[in-house]
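*** Fold description ***
***
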Amino acid sequence: MFTKAPECPSPSTRRLAVWWTAIRPKTLPAAVVPVVVGGALAAHNGPVDWRVFICTLFTALLIQIATNFANDVVDFEKGADTHDRVGPQRVTQAGLVTPSRMKLATGIVLSLALLNGFYLAFIGGWPIVVIGLLSLAFAIGYTAGPYPIAYLGLGELFVLIFFGPVAVGGTFYLLTMTLTPAVATTGLAVGCLSAAILVVNNLRDLSGDALVGKRTLAVRFGERFSRLEYSFFLTLAATLPCAEALSGLGPRHGWFAAGFLLAAKPAATLVATAHGAALNPALGYTARLLVIFGLLYLAGVIVSP
């Protein structure tokens, strides 16, 4: 009997696969979860406009994707991504996308984010204009420009703030035109988990980053510091929603979110013991913890009076 040979993927399918890799889907929870949490807090306070929520979510995704695209090409041009890379594939370094095409894609995605931003600025006014412009600037300035954030060891601080209180607070403000203390504490918890993802990334790339002068905190202070930093971020992310619920600052059952720690063992074990490429699974595990946090917090908001 003859067996049919497997069909080769079409050129269009291969191109889509390449761009899907460039998007880095495992990083997208860092864009989605803050908006979902901010929307949940807003809905807990009263009715919300879901059109504004969806536009906010779409804009956050576009900014994250643009940041990933810019990082892909800039790290390649600066020599941070080489054939010795131990992390997931980067399409510019692998020769799957030319630098010029990746820069064009970055510009297109940023332009789409800017178009969405005009609508959000109309809704939220100058506070949203400032947040939007800073977010777009940092999407490029994270790895590009004369003082790139990632190369100065400021990556965790940037992620903690912009993927935490800024993203949660901006979403909440757009939907309510107000701010509450819960926005800051919950946003900080979300930002801690997003920063933890970056800690794993920098710990894995420590050796290669040191060679090209990328002075991340892992490079500056070493492996032990990064492992302690990871534990600190997870602990703080679990503590904040509990303190918020006990103090009455936020939803009564917001403490549900601390339950993400029940799923933290695989990631924590790898971060505590693994090196180099062996840390790659910990990236996915930590991104999953962020998603679990968001879902549990949403559940806590739903059942809170």
